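User: quick one, sequence for these tokens?
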């Protein structure tokens, strides 16, 4: 089937049509595109906000609050995390500048290709996946794009079409990197595992830092059924996502199959667990479905929306296995690259994971 045919079909598809790609249990049923005739919204459920300062002041309480929130829905809001909100304001302006001062032809020189587990580089609008015409341009920068490990062969222009952007976004990457071990240690402690079990794996680990640029929506696009970003689950340990100025993020409550509109205070971080974490936690921390929809306020459809999530991975040769203290493991150990590419083949085609062991 051609990509265009797949995308046309994807607008009508349910997630379960792609279930054979999944590497963790996902029984929830939802339309890849929004389906107002069949969907309901949960206006009562509130995703928990957790004060990161508790990690230093009252760690047992932080562990308990974070663990309960993630076990309930796979999402939590982190406040007082130490990153200056002004840096996030600057980041939104920088992303708009980044996409508005380059032309598509220039960006296409950096079109996304698989490097290890992760597709890295530029995604033109409607090409985030082959199964759904998402109305977003994206650009994924992994660890090697920031030269955090001082590779002597590093050339900034190999990853960035314009100078000056890498040093700015490196500030955010380094700030978020400081949160990785405290968050992971807290999750492991809640699960009753050794809190330091992943310290070595997550020190200087790989990540996907993604710049998302959602252009203003025309009426034709609103009527197309495409949506800004399809319903999906993240394929990582967890994702660090600063709150956006223009809302649109929605989370599926698996317990009642209703959608939750999420719009925390600007400057807070939205944290969610992904497929890697669901696997190692034996389904205790779910990989929760979410999507990006047009804003409820019609006047905001003419606004540019940006976001910059940072997905935290382990390196390709690491083995994902259920934590040893958890009884009755549901999953066999699997190499991270095999796990990752088997899932993302639904987005990029079966060739994506060919010959990966």
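Assistant:
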């Amino acid at each position: 089937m051609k990509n265009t045919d797949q995308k046309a079909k994807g607008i009508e598809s349910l997630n379960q049509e792609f279930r054979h790609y999944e590497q963790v249990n996902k029984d929830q049923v939802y339309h890849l595109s929004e389906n107002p005739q069949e969907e309901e919204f949960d206006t009562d459920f509130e995703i928990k906000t957790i004060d990161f300062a508790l990690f230093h002041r009252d760690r047992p309480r932080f562990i308990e609050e974070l663990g309960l929130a993630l076990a309930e829905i796979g999402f939590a809001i982190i406040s007082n995390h130490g990153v200056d909100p002004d840096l996030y304001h600057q980041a939104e302006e920088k992303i708009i500048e980044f996409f508005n001062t380059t032309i598509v032809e220039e960006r296409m020189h950096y079109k996304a290709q698989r490097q290890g587990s992760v597709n890295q580089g530029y995604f033109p609008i409607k090409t985030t996946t082959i199964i759904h015409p998402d109305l977003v341009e994206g650009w994924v920068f992994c660890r090697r794009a920031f030269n955090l490990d001082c590779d002597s062969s590093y050339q900034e222009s190999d990853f960035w079409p314009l100078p000056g952007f890498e040093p700015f976004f490196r500030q955010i990457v380094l700030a978020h990197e400081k949160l990785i071990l405290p968050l992971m240690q807290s999750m492991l402690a809640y699960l009753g595992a050794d809190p330091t079990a992943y310290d070595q794996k997550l020190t200087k680990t790989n990540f996907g830092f993604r710049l998302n640029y959602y252009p203003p929506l025309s009426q034709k696009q609103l009527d197309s059924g495409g949506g800004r970003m399809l319903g999906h689950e993240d394929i990582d340990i967890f994702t660090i996502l600063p709150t956006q100025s223009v809302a649109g993020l929605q989370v599926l409550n698996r317990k009642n199959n209703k959608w939750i509109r999420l719009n925390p205070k600007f400057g807070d971080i939205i944290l969610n667990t992904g497929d890697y974490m669901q696997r190692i936690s034996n389904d205790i921390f779910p990989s929760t479905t979410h999507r990006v929809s047009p804003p409820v306020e019609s006047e905001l459809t003419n606004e540019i929306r940006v976001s910059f999530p940072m997905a935290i991975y382990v390196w390709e040769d690491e083995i994902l296995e259920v934590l040893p203290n958890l009884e009755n493991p549901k999953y066999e150990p699997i190499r991270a690259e095999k796990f990752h590419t088997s899932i993302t083949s639904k987005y990029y085609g079966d060739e994506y994971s060919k010959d990966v062991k």
